[in-house]
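Duplicate of #3305? Posting structure anyway:
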């Protein structure tokens, strides 16, 4: 008699682990403005580190409805995945020790060469893009620059789509495998233009051909009646969903990276 066929163990996806796993709080990220808890999550023999941000720990903001930041973080992840760039770590909405909240896979950042720098020159060097001049003390200024990096450029497009009002340097997580992730997307999807970022180096420049193709596909995925539109309708308001569609359409029409509007601070503070 032949031996029975061995069935390999089922692989647990990151979103399944985050959604169904047992969540255990291990500590708190103290420097965060809202409650950010460092946790472990385990399910069917798999375990990982993650961040849990309970809705109950969100600080009220004047320009965003109370108790909606966790949903916005998940919506940003859904858009990142729909664009095919996977620039945001797996993120879900789930119940936890302190109620409903956002749960996101923890990313260990690698100490690769900096993506941001301050330089004494008037113009950025090769491989860098200018952001703005910054005061560095004693009446001196320096030019703040970011790397002319394809990963950052994709993130700049994503931020324009989701209307990210807080893209700081500390929200950029490069990994040892050459990946780049962006985190902290609670202040996104506002109906008013609130793009505030350090990634202005491509402002006014033509979008890449890749970005144009991604935006065209995203426009179709956001059409009423689609799976993505239905999923987003659970996370943001109908007005915010329409504003999202309008931003995608505007980017496709202009074919260029957006420029600061002048109606809203262009650079987040503090910038890191």
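Output from current build:
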């Amino acid at each position: 008699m032949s031996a029975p066929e061995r069935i390999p163990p089922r692989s647990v996806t990151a979103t399944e682990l985050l959604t169904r796993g047992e969540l255990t709080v291990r500590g708190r990220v103290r420097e965060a403005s809202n409650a950010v808890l460092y946790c472990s999550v385990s399910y069917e023999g798999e375990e990982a580190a993650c961040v849990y941000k309970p809705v109950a720990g969100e600080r009220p903001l004047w320009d965003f409805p109370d108790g909606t930041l966790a949903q916005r973080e998940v919506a940003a992840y859904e858009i990142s995945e729909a664009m095919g760039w996977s620039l945001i770590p797996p993120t879900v909405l789930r119940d936890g020790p302190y109620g409903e909240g956002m749960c996101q896979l923890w990313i260990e950042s690698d100490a690769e060469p900096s993506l941001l720098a301050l330089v004494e020159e008037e113009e950025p060097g090769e491989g860098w893009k200018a952001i703005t001049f910054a005061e560095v003390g004693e009446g001196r200024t320096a030019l703040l620059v970011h790397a002319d990096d394809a990963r950052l450029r994709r993130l700049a497009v994503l931020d324009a789509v989701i209307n990210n009002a807080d893209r700081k340097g500390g929200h950029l997580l490069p990994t040892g495998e050459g990946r780049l992730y962006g985190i902290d997307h609670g202040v996104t999807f506002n109906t008013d233009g609130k793009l505030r970022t350090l990634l202005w180096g491509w402002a006014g420049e033509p979008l890449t051909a890749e970005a144009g193709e991604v935006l065209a596909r995203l426009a179709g995925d956001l059409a009423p009646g689609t799976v993505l539109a239905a999923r987003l309708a659970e996370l943001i308001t109908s007005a915010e969903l329409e504003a999202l569609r309008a931003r995608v359409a505007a980017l496709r029409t202009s074919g260029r990276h957006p420029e600061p509007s002048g109606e809203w601070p262009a650079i987040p503070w503090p910038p890191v």
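Confirmed duplicate; merging threads. The helical segments are 14-20, 69-83, 150-162, 209-221, 227-233, 238-254. The mean pLDDT is 92.
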